Known about the structure:
Blueprint: H1 18-21, E1 23-27, H2 33-44, E2 47-50, H3 51-56, H4 60-69, H5 79-83, H6 88-111, E3 119-122, H7 128-131, E4 141-146, H8 148-157, H9 159-162, H10 171-196, E5 199-203, H11 209-219
Parallel strand pairs: 1-3, 1-4, 2-3, 4-5
Amino acid sequence: MTSHSSRADGEVWDPFGTLHRALWIGGGQWAGKSTVARRLAVQYGVTAYHYDYHDARGHNDRRIARRAALAEPTTEPDLDRMWVHTTPEAMATETLAGFPDRFQWALDDLRALVSGHPIIAEGWGLRPELVAPIVDSPRRMIVMVPTAEFRDQQVRELPRAASLGHPVSDPAQAQSNRLARDRLIAEEAVRRAHQLGIRVIAIDGSRDTAAVAEIVADHFGPYLPEQDRKS
């Protein structure tokens, strides 16, 4: 039986050729992926797809339906159990295990996009091991991860990074667990990227957004619209 996302011969279903022409930015939280994608979208006239936005909003109904199909509780999980009483290692393992299903939902979103230019898809759930089977070259992907120092800077300066944003009994422990989980997931992205020959950029704050975007644009150079590129 052929699934909604693949054909009987194993090829990923891509009716408009969008997936195979996409460019992918994966990596760790707080590395500036969304900012770079938006900048490239404006500069080169391509379309940016923000995984985190869709994952947190548009995919929630599918997440609930998946839980129901697996006979799991469909109510929201206990926040203290999730963020305070679970170790970062267990949190990372659970998150990584859920990425393949969440990736399929992102692919469904991307299939519906048709553009004369490539789509730049960015987000931490766009994992190297999930993207690699789709692309014709590892150059279609880049992985951005923050150094420990830059992650600390982002936590100090970005309100959404500075706190969990959910009511829990121990906010400090929850935030500590969250940051440790994010570090583990970023490290796994780097490990997988190296295995697959996908480029990794360590974001340490020494370059501004424009400089980082230029590096990413140069990496994606063969696939970006030549007529829109700066001389």
